[in-house]
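Sample 3 of the quickstart, ligand alpha-L-arabinofuranose:
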Amino acid sequence: MNPAVLCSKTLFIVAGAAVLTNAASAQAPDATVTIQVDKTAHAVSPTLYGLMTEEINYSYDGGLYAEMVRNRTFQDHGFGGVAHWSIVHLGNSAATMAIDQAEGPSAALQHSLAISVKQADPGNQAGVRNEGYWGMALRPNTTYKGSLYAKTDSDMGPLSVALINNNSGKPVATTALPAISTEWKRYEFTLATRDIEVSAENHLLLTVGHAGKLWVDLVSLFPPTYKDRGNGNRSDLMEMMVAMHPKFLRLPGGNYLEGDQIDERFDWKNTIGPLVDRPTHRSPWSYQSSDGMGLLEFLEWAEDLNIQTVLAVYAGYSLKGDHIRPGPTLTPFVEEALDEIEFATGDPSTKWGAVRTKLGHPAPFPVKYVEIGNEDEFDHSGSYEGRYAQFYKAIKAKYPRLELIATAPLKRMKPDVLDDHYYKRADEFFADVKHYDNADRNGPKIFVGEWATREGSPTTDMGAALGDAAWMTGMERNSDLIVMASYAPLFVNVNPGGMQWESDLIGYNALSSYGSPSYYAQAMFAEYLGTEVPRSSVSGGGERFFYSVTHDPGNGLLYLKLVNASSVPQPIEINLPGTISVDETATLISLSGNNPAETNTISAPARIVPVRTTLTNAGVKFSHAIPAYSIQVIQLRAK
Ligand code: AHR
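Result:
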């Protein structure tokens, strides 16, 4: 669809933005791109594109972490701890439920849900139901693995466990646990569906057929997970990340690392070991984190994607302004970080490597970069300079090969790497694509640890993808300086109340997931990364035309990335002087929208997806036109 012409041939409205254009031409001024394939400007950072994640927008709980039971340890803030649970009386049974602050299965989980059943019999059962994270996705002929901790005050007979369809009220899978003990014990069960319709409109039901008092805690249910990991991840979201061709995973934040207060930081020691020993904690994004995704699960997630971890350690500053002064009071936090690094990278003979081994992972994880804090420029006390120096000295003394990332510019020392963050509108990115072109090459290397064009909600739109792609051309051109870059936030649960941060990359509900146009733009740039940036130049072209070019001499392929963020096509003359020959046939991957506001949604997930075609007119000199609102990669075979 063409933008609406509003007045006298010159004013076009493009999704709310007024754009002046030449009425006579239905295309942008010609551009000439000249690429000297035989002259390398610099290497491309092999780790340029990666992932950044934290617990935000129900990224883990209600997202990647495949747990289906919401508020499984009764620690959610709402409704006195019983949010997402409700009492169920079948027939003439009678029961109430309440949090019992004095009864819990472990030192970490000191309270539980008490269900007082006044009246029930096997034909008239009573109990509780859990609604899941905006439902529970069930698929046909699938086995779901569950477990719970429970105790009773008397013999209450078996505990029935069922998955019930919300609409029909009928069970779709059932099982029963033997009589529950009067001591806390862990019970496991499976629930197997048969030939059912795929649906998220289901809940979990726990009932008994005898009067008495039943306590339950850590009620858990998992679908089959990616690579069949216990306590594992959703396969669809893992596959979406694989398709992004990432090279690293930055974790665990973001604000989530810091917490609002110091005791709400990501306190990694509370996130390892059996789930019953994890106390859970409040995330700064306003909900309780189950910590089911703990440090080991994070590291295994990177391992499953076959990528490195960029490990961010808490550095003594929390979001509401509390900070620890450098010196002796900071020492315990430095030691906490050293232990964390040892947990991730130490061999099994080390103290924390042995703990990891006991938890089932003897092999150390590959970690090259450790990030000291997050966005410490917000610490207006000025303590970061000293805090970074203290962490740097201690970490380098024990791990000299680690590269340490600073999260704010430093005056007194040069960090190995500096983490820069950019959240902008598309127009701002268009204007800033040359940001690093003249940056100091003697300063620290750059990690663009968070960046995104913030347009579109809950996930970004085509206009944002164009802003992102323009910015990526600048990052590729400067990938001698920029060693890594990761978009943020990665995930959003699109259900009402699921989003805390607008404009995210991948959206999902309990049942399915989809990529925004920005997701596809990134996947395209990362898939066709190349190893070298050849010398190149451009003349002419419209104001919203951007390009980058990389080369992989190993496979003889040249990747030309083109971005046309204008409302008219952009003609381009492509010259490859010094090239002996270029195959006539080239691969063209195109991502196009009809207007900047066009987007993908959970119900229309594939409006804007990359389309692969073939060009047949490639050569050492050839013409091409990139359509309006388009991002393209041309893969050329050049000798
Ligand atoms: O990505 C969302 C937030 O933006 C991150 O938690 C924080 O680091 C930044 O301010």
